[in-house]
């Protein structure tokens, strides 16, 4: 079985978990454990297209709130060296290679979820939370996947057919959050994702924040951001209890 190699990570007090000894230092999973021994439910978080390290304070706010409710949090850094090079030269999302990358990321996330559930601390319950591209990836990774009990997509579109290895026939209970002023992932994309979840029969909810743009929930003190984080934590708690 694939194992995690642990080492301390200074940034934001996370612990870096890598899938094997050959994994490079910028990949892997940042682990934010809840306090206390015993079994814990888990939340797996996925970053978006480009704001990763610079957005860690915002991701950490989510992690802190989930930790406070007794959940272990795993932040998956799903890019490898080739992805980071493509991101740096502006070609990551261009051409047919993107769909192949997306399928690779989906496999990486599914493997991470499998390993999370195998951890001695895990009670077997997992929520998957993704932002923007990571939200679309969360949908793909949770699709037809009994290892995921709750799905959250923040300003997320539904995966494209070319990005999937198989048709999506089932999703776990799903919460979607979107700002009506989003010009990166328009609200229409979030509404389409909601309609797709409805068609699949998943228990779902779409919360629209009037006038808010892409990344609105990354504000530390914004009213909509605070509400979004609270909704996410409450939803995850309900689904994983």
From TrEMBL:
The entry lists its GO molecular-function terms as:
hydrolase activity
**Which superkingdom does the taxonomy of this entry point to?**
Bacteria
Q: List the SUPFAM superfamilies hit by this protein, alphabetically.
A: alpha/beta-Hydrolases
User: Which residues belong to the signal peptide in this entry?
Assistant: 1-23
One Pfam family from the record: DLH
Whether rRNA-binding counts among this entry's keywords is no
The record, for InterPro entries, names:
AB_hydrolase_fold, Dienelactn_hydro, Dienelactone_hydrolase-like
Q: Which residue intervals define the domain Dienelactone hydrolase in the entry?
A: 100-238
- Entry protein name: Prolyl oligopeptidase family serine peptidase
